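Fold this complex.
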Amino acid sequence: MLINSAVGKLPQNKIFLVVPAYNEEKTVALVLEDLCQRSFNVVLVDDGSRDGTYDIVKDMQNKYPNHIFIYRHVINRGLGAALKTGIAAALKNGAEYIVTFDADGQHDPHDIETVCEPLINKDADVVIGSRNFSDMPLSRNWGNYLMNTLTMIFYGIYVNDSQSGLRAFNANSARLLKLNYHGYGVSSEIISEIKKNNLNLKEVPIKTIYTSYTLEKGTNTSVGLKILFKMIIDIFKKF
Amino acid sequence: MLSAEGNNKHLLTIKMSGVKMIYQPIGVIIGILGLIISIIRFRSGKSSAGMLGFWILVWAITIVISIFPDSTTFFANLFGIGRGLDFILIIAILGCYYFIFKIYNMIEQVESEITELVRQIALNNENENNKNDSQEDDPSNKLES
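Structure:
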């Protein structure tokens, strides 16, 4: 049964969800099921997974043949690379709106409508879904504030949730993004590209689903430090 | 009659200058060999004119320092460093830092290129991973919902 009513307002055939996945065999089937039931187009980028992710997604593709597009990195290259491939593939397949969506079940598919609305109403070129920080454990909180501050220092915009994985772009904005960071630093780089191209950014609140699984992953302090190190080195490279 | 102290000092001076004297000719020989090899490499096209210039400088300095070791003291004092040897060591360490930085950048470059390759492979294999009933590249065919 296809759930159409909840997202009746959205032009689903123009929306492409880019789902980067690395070793997500536990959650990817449920996430894709949810998305396909809502008739979205899904570009799944398998970033060199060593577990059953690819096979699971292949099965899902047989179940929903016209909704899932699979792209596979032969080696793991990081979130930034996966997003870059996914966005390029979505544009190639005629996407008008692109939404990046996590494969680990942290995002609620209802929020797709939340982030797409400003794009469709032409209120913004890029929409970032901000998580509510009071729901988050303290260690994550500090990490996020730090990344937000660093992003502002290096790239000039303060975003409430610079590391959020749920972002929406219209096709023009997506085309303008020049992403070079392979790993998690891409979240801040996207902000930098938004500023460089003078795109209209809007932040909307979204729901986060925190399970013990999702808490282990994502940006933590050591990854944050690595990103900071890279940002500093980048400044030196300009000489 | 020489005092014992005077004797020892005298011997020490001879010993020190003896040590100096061994590495001096060695340094000059290494410098000359280095010059010859650098010129040969340039002639056979393995290094550019810029690199040749750089290496000639390096070997020339090696030779000069070997013949006039005290010249290093002069340069060291220019920078406020006590000994010529300290000065050389500091230059060597800074040089190492610079090369490490360069190598780090090279590795980043290589990583970028690998990523680009992996991405191109992924995009090129799109048909293999997305075998649908309709195989045409026409985008409107893919949007059937």
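The longest helix of chain B spans residues 84-124.
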